[in-house]
Specification:
CATH architecture: 3-Layer(aba) Sandwich
Strand content: 25-35%
Number of helices: 8
Radius of gyration: 18 Å
Structural class: alpha/beta
CATH superfamily: P-loop containing nucleotide triphosphate hydrolases
Number of strands: 12
CATH topology: Rossmann fold
Helix content: 25-40%
Largest sheet: 6 strands, mixed
Distance between the termini: 36 Å
Order of helices and strands: EEEHEHEHHHEHEHEEEEEH
């Protein structure tokens, strides 16, 4: 059943941050969520993860509301924009701890660490790691188990170019395993080869959405237009 968001409204204090947002991502689908700073992307992901209270609207993960069903939350993997790490623990300890907490096999996370070039550093405390290394660790943790829905908040931020291709491959692998992936970011050019559909947020409202078409050469298009240019047009139009 994937992820279904219907008529979502979120208010933080007196400010309405999300206004009547409706999105859906089927199992195996990667939905790219784009928009500038303050568009509401992070708030949307945090709301789906159950970390922000919604004013009204519906969120369903695998057919269940994560606010009221522990089973639905168990199907979620959420990677925040700022990696949530414990500085005095090693990278390996993070993987082992999360695997134990959720009764998951840690092997896929260690395999992901190899592909990202992180494996040689796993024995070190993450307090001395760069932002990019911490980001890689979060991607490794997302590979634990088989989540039905994966929420990624700018997961490619701070990654070095050699790691970018491996990270994109890991995200595609999560989708191929059946996860509905909501991938938030600001640079569609980085992820256009990965996503199946897109949505653009501006000031908490949807400003455009659609599905990508792939040509025989792999070129992505939307309504016959170059996909990157089309998405960037939606983003730019929101600011004009």
């Amino acid at each position: 059943m994937g992820l279904v968001i219907t008529g979502l409204h979120v208010r933080l204090g007196s400010r309405e941050v999300l206004r009547d947002v409706s999105l859906a991502a089927a199992p195996g689908e990667i939905l790219g969520l784009y928009g500038g700073n303050g568009a509401g992307k992070s708030t949307l992901l945090r709301t789906v993860a159950g970390l922000v209270r919604r004013e009204r609207g519906e969120v369903l993960v695998a057919g269940r509301d994560p606010d009221g069903a522990a089973e639905a939350r168990a199907h979620l993997a959420y990677l925040p924009e700022t990696p949530a790490v414990t500085p005095h623990l090693s990278g390996k300890a993070h993987i082992d701890l999360v695997a134990r907490l959720f009764a998951r096999d840690p092997a896929p996370a260690f395999e992901a660490a190899k592909s990202l070039g992180l494996a040689p550093r796993l024995s070190g405390h993450v307090g001395g790691w760069s932002q990019g290394m911490r980001q890689k660790l979060m991607l490794c943790l997302a590979c634990l188990g088989t989540p039905g829905c994966v929420l990624l908040d700018d997961p490619l931020n701070a990654l070095d170019p050699p790691s970018l291709s491996a990270a994109l491959g890991l995200i595609r692998k999560l989708a191929d395993a059946g996860a509905a992936v909501l991938l938030a970011g600001q640079r569609p050019r980085e992820t256009i080869g990965l996503i199946d559909s897109f949505a653009v947020l501006h000031e908490g409202r949807l400003n455009g959405s659609g599905r990508l078409e792939r040509g025989g050469d792999g070129t992505a298009r939307i309504d016959g237009h170059d996909a990157v240019e089309r998405i960037e047009t939606f983003v730019e139009a929101a600011w004009n």
